[in-house]
Write a structure and sequence with these properties.
With 317 residues, the protein is α+β, with helices and mostly antiparallel strands. It has 2 domains: 1-28 and 218-317, no CATH class; 38-204, no CATH class. The protein has helices spanning 2-23, 38-41, 84-100, 111-118, 131-143, 196-204, 211-217, 221-239, 249-256, 263-280; strands at residues 32-36, 55-59, 62-67, 70-71, 76-77, 104-108, 146-156, 159-168, 172-174, 190-193, 206-210, 244-248, 286-289, 292-296. It has a 4-stranded antiparallel β-sheet with strand order 2-3-7-8. A hairpin with a 2-residue loop joins strand 2 (55-59) and strand 3 (62-67). The radius of gyration is 19 Å and the shape is globular.
Length: 317
């Protein structure tokens, strides 16, 4: 019964967002969100990687790796950020960092207010399956993690170079929320301070997105990834005056769906997720063909001239 209710609510959110975006394609300033380009090109885990010392994902010459923080109370790794919630947190972090131009971000005085800010539902309660408890767990996983980006470069056949950057997400912070009564304010505001290198990376070349679409896609980490990837890829094609690009399913799986057990399963999941994405991103021009799909020039999710910063297509460490 719970699953049916969740499915019905997800479909309702999707239909409402699709209708609103069709009627008014340009979001208000409050409905604009951003995500750093590197985390569009290489994405977080969709499911828990388990107890492994390091997790990696590769896209061409760019490699993302994550090392979990340490739980000093239990004397064990905190675990990896995975699923939709860390993605929603990263949208919020990037957007707030751009808005405030500050490494220190105020998370607010009540859990309910912050949950609504990132698109979660405070009415789901403070139990293990409630959004509040899942948020608490994933916040600690993300904020305490170290994210590394490494890029291989070749000047010619004899000269090979490597660039890397290791970034703590939020080496400082305080959380004082009441998870049993999320609407209650605390005596102290909650905050995080982003690592200097992480802050510099996320504000350097952000991809502009529509919060209305993110809220509608929030239950699917794959759909969130595909939405951000599709608008970035569309911009890249427009920028380079390239009419279209063929994307093989096997290469796309390596980039965005490495946890899936086979190409057929990933293709099935990706097609279903793309169907959701297209409903809230009407400017997306793509077509499935034998062995993959073709993405073409079209409209980005937010018109470039209205985005906060100009997008960059250059891969950098």
């Amino acid at each position: 019964m719970i699953t049916c209710i969740n499915l019905g609510k997800s479909l309702s959110l999707l239909l409402d967002a699709a209708t609103e975006i069709q009627m008014d394609p340009e979001p208000t300033e409050q409905d604009k969100a951003f995500l750093t380009r590197q985390l569009v090109q290489v994405t977080l885990p969709h499911s828990s990687p388990g107890n492994v010392p390091i997790w990696k994902r590769r896209n061409g010459n760019l490699t993302l790796s994550i090392r979990p923080g340490w739980n000093h109370e239990k004397d064990q790794p905190i675990g990896y950020p995975f699923g939709s919630i860390p993605r929603l947190l990263l949208f919020w972090i990037t957007t707030e960092a751009l808005r405030t131009q500050s490494r220190k971000l105020e998370l607010g005085e009540s859990l309910a207010g912050f949950m609504r800010d990132i698109g979660l539902d405070p009415s789901t309660g403070g139990g293990k399956r409630g959004d509040g408890r899942r948020l608490q767990n994933q916040m600690e996983r993300l904020f305490r993690a170290t994210i590394s980006l490494e890029m291989m470069d070749t000047k010619d056949k004899n000269v090979i170079g490597k660039r890397w950057i290791d970034m703590q997400v939020a080496p400082e912070g305080e959380l004082w929320w009441n998870f049993k009564n999320p609407g209650q304010a605390t005596l102290f505001g909650s905050w995080i301070e982003l690592g200097e290198k992480f802050y510099e990376a996320i504000i350097a070349s952000p991809v502009p997105l529509d919060k209305r679409a993110l809220r509608a896609l929030k239950r699917s980490p794959l759909a969130l990834d595909l939405y951000a990837w599709a608008t970035y890829k569309t911009y890249s094609l427009n920028h380079h005056k390239k009419v279209e690009q063929f994307i093989p399913w096997h290469a796309f799986m390596a980039q965005l769906g490495a946890e899936y057990n086979d190409h057929k399963n990933f293709k099935k999941k990706a097609k279903a997720a793309f169907k959701k994405v297209r409903s809230v991103y009407p400017g997306l021009e793509m077509e499935e063909v034998d062995g993959g799909f073709i993405i073409r020039q079209g409209k980005t999710a937010i018109r470039q001239k209205q985005s906060r910063r100009k997008l960059s297509t250059k891969i950098s460490g």
